[in-house]
């Protein structure tokens, strides 16, 4: 059994982002100071949804549709840095996924359409290798863009079966119409694994879905496959110490 019991959920409003992870038996905390006091107790950090990530962090001009909270960005970047320093794996939901993309060295699309308060299919690759279409609930106008990262620094695990947005805006000056979009853009990434930083980012909201939903089971399988091995490894190291 893992010695790392705490699930740290950062800026958890309305306190429901831990729902998809109940099955792992973690003890909930929303106190980021635990990473400073007793990082060995933290199994996983979850970054939650909310305001846009400030574009100056990834060196882009601000799009008119972008509404960011720089104070929150600074707070969560500090949490990220502390988690990284102690080898704690991370999960990001919606804005949290976008933050992790940026912290991995990627950038964001600052404005996309047809992703507000919607239910839509994604094509999901399961850890066993098979592909399945799942229905997910989303609400975002920004999107992870990991494609500029080096090969091996990211793996797209779930994506849209077709493009939903009518345009893809990196900033106010760089807006790409759907007809001119690359195949990568038209394959809108929904779930991305960033192995270099031990982080899993998902654009959709599993906490809004019933725990019996196939997409929630998918998230749990991804956490079991990509996140839990770090927790178990660290627990084994602690037992040997």
CATH class assignment = Alpha Beta
CATH fold-type name: Rossmann fold
Largest sheet: 9 strands, mixed
Lateral strand order in the biggest sheet: 2-1-3-4-14-13-10-7-8
What is the CATH superfamily classification? Answer: Class I glutamine amidotransferase (GATase) domain
Poorly predicted runs: 236-241
Structural domain count: 1
Strand tally is 14
Q: Based on CA inertia axes, which overall geometry fits?
A: globular
Q: Beta-strand percentage?
A: 25-35%
Number of helices: 5
Give the H and E element order: EEHEHEHEEEEEEEEHEEH
Structural class estimated from helices and strands:
alpha/beta
Radius of gyration: 17 Å
Helix content: 10-25%
- Average pLDDT rating: 94
CATH structural architecture: 3-Layer(aba) Sandwich
What distance separates the N and C termini?
16 Å
Can you offer a commentary on this structure?
- This protein has a single domain, classed as Rossmann fold.
- By secondary structure, it is α/β, with parallel strands linked by helices.
- It contains five helices and 14 strands.
- The chain starts with 5 loop residues before the first strand and ends with a helix.
